[in-house]
Amino acid sequence: MKINKTKKRDIEGSRIILVRKKAELDGFITDPAEKSYISKRMAGEKNVAILNRLDHVVLFRSLENEDAPKTTRLENARKAGFEIHSILIDHELTSVTVINGGVEQEECIAFAEGVALTNYQFLKYLSADHTKKHPLNELYFQDEGLSEDHVKNLENLVNAVYLTRDLVNEPLSYLTAVQLSKEIEKMGNASGYTVEVFNKKKIESLKMGGLLAVNKGSVDPPTFSILTWKPENAVNERPIVLVGKGVVFDTGGLSLKPTLDSMDYMKCDMGGAAAVAGAFYAVAKNRLPVWVVGLVPATDNRPDGNAYVPGDVITMYDGTTVEVLNTDAEGRMLLADALSYAKQYDPELVIELSTLTGSAHMAIDKYGIVGMGNATREVMENLKASGEQCSERVAEFPFWDEYKEQLESDIADLKNIGGKYAGAITAGKFLEHFTDYPYIHLDIAGPSYNKVPFNYRGKGGSGVGVRILFHFFLNRSH
Fold it and tell me: Any idea which residues carry the catalytic annotation?
């Protein structure tokens, strides 16, 4: 979607004027009858008033709760954008201008963000039914205090989320591990970050046992993608590394998932990889002065005749031996190799994102990200604050060492699953074993994919992870 800034004298066509409930309307409406109509609408329980001018529409939308915390006001503004989107589509608008009529600048941006994210569609496989395509393709801002950088930041961030959602929504029939790497390269070419892709032969030479074990049941080869954004003016002397789980489809392997309400949407199991690629796109496109490295191990997980089996002992990239008790706990196997590989960068911090456990999904549903780790309290709080800023909230779980006891094996260094309880945490502790640096694990299993529409996050891939990471790096840039 195109998002631009316009000057007051240039405003033509349809517009949305954001106001407070009891705002003065003189600067926006001159007709007394129209002014009376809008005032009456706003004085009651309604928060939208529409003036149909035949060749364009003028909408007034009030944003309230001025005394609420800023994060609440911003999320309410995004939801207001979601709610008004259906009106824009009903009127078949191709463009609309958002005018700040007396609200906070950040609310104005958040409102437009809600409209833009709601406008996303994945129509690639529909047979030329253009009636389902949203006509809206341009948003304009009219806000004197808003800089061009603010507008471009939003446009690039929205498009990054679009690309991320596209990746998550693609089926395995198109998005194999090899194709995922190609898509990541395309995003790099479009935004400016560089990509190196290891093929199966290279992965075998590196002895990435976890990634290779999961791949044994597949007819398609694995890939390992390395993304790099290193501007000359980077504020960090050591890189921040992002690691994303790239399981392009997860059957569970020989520990086969039930189809209904489980395997049927497992094309989304590469949501972490997609979020890393999307975050890189937003960071590079906006030229943020941060040095970031991304690692994406990718494969599908299938129950072929040569698939790895429960009881196997796998030697990982760092030499750790792992007893596999459940082949459906595959994400941690390939992530472990990537986390070990990250050590060579001497990173300032590693943040890993993955649709890792049903336990995390069951704990907090789709309303947030389960997070944990051993990074400093300051870093964790900064990440959580970035999540609150864009409503990709992090629910921090304990990360006590006692949870490692569930991973003790009689025949290997570790087993790949813990006990009946605290599955999200034991998965995180398994991954921590392969780190020697400040580490944060984000389990996005709950919010990564919506089976039914969920406000501006939509239906299907939500693109979760991109916005929290972008805001984290934006804040780190200052």
Answer: 257, 332
